[in-house]
Amino acid sequence: MSRLFIVFLMAVGDFDFRFFKSVIVGASARCGLAECDRNCHFGTSWNQVYELAQSAQTGRETNGRLVKERTGMGSSSVAVSRPTGAKGAYGDTLATYYHQRDSETATVSWSRESTFAITRLRSDIGLPATSNPIPAEPAIHVSIAIQPVPLHSYQLSIDHREIQVPYIPAFGSSVIDLQSNPVCFVDCGFDYVHYHLPREGLDEIARDHNIQPVESYKFSICEDDLVIAQLTKSALPFIGSQNWPSILALDQFSLILGAHLLQRYGGVPRLPAVESRGLAPWQKRRAAEVLREHLDGSVRLADVARECRLSVSHFTRSFKVSFGVSAHAWLIRRRVDRAMQLLIRTPSSLIDVALQCGFSDQAAFTRTFTQIVGTSPGRWKREHTV
């Protein structure tokens, strides 16, 4: 299966694409960190995805179709790659519950003091003992197995009740409420990616669509969830890496996963899309100013939304309407525009231009520039310099 993120196959009958689209319209048709030469892009057209969704929902074949857009992809380091003093079950804190020494983690502040996190834990020998009890917290814990777990090798207890765990195939996922006292034991090597989604952030997404916060999420074990599987496959190369895409990209990733969780596991009813008229002129100016001040992508969607006096999801939709692309895709284009100016007006080397424009290295800059402009920065400079 291609690493370009495969469009949600709407053959998964209970997935309400209209709701999903309304939550993070403009975030990404690929629904996450679509790897393409180790870079990230979130600007693919929603119209293409929506057409595929409609086709699947009416029974027409969509399996295996990809939505691709030739738009730039950029890379910069996420601010927090290994959190310390985590206040929730993620990162090294989660690792200690499973008797592991460390973790591969990326986090982003989600709402107020809550944190969305992706944590990868792996072991060649399994757990030395039953996991320590995870303190109850208002959050949903999503786990996905990167490698299969044999039958009878995984033991799980929820609220002091033993759960029968079947054979877990690669990319089988589980959804657990962290207020249900989960405890487990794995007697074989494992490789898991865990998502930490605070209820506070999920509730904010719901309220933004005039939906009451979800009281309970459906417990799931060994679920064949295409959306979570593909999100994970796309994010996997970046977890624990210094080449994580920008915080903006991770923000959009978290919104997509949160929206999916609400719809599939929170029982949110099917709703018409929430329409947006776009940003007001002053909001467009302010959003552009803030993003230009952070070409390296070190600004969060919540920060830009706050400057525009909007919720994150409302801002995301409105930005897409006003600018035609997501905030992350717009920012990547501005990086390339800035690079063009520097290539023509200064004698700076390619690596200097890359760093000045917010790219992590020259290779990332060259790939992104080529994908947007159609030629390498070195060749473009030669063609445009007298």
Keywords:
386 residues; alpha+beta; Jelly Rolls; six-stranded antiparallel β-sheet; three-stranded antiparallel β-sheet; 13 helices; 37% helix; disordered N terminus
Low-confidence stretches: 1-85
CATH architecture of one domain: Sandwich
| Annotated CATH topology of one domain | Jelly Rolls
Report the C-alpha radius of gyration, rounded. 21 Å
Describe the main β-sheet briefly: 6 strands, antiparallel
Shape: globular
Fold and architecture overview:
Strand 1 and strand 2 form a beta hairpin. The protein has a domain of 175 residues: Jelly Rolls. Helix 1 runs antiparallel to helix 6. The N and C termini lie far apart (45 Å). It is globular and about 75 Å long. The chain has 13 helices and nine strands. With 386 residues, it is an alpha+beta fold. A six-stranded antiparallel β-sheet has the order 1-2-8-3-6-9, with helices on both faces.
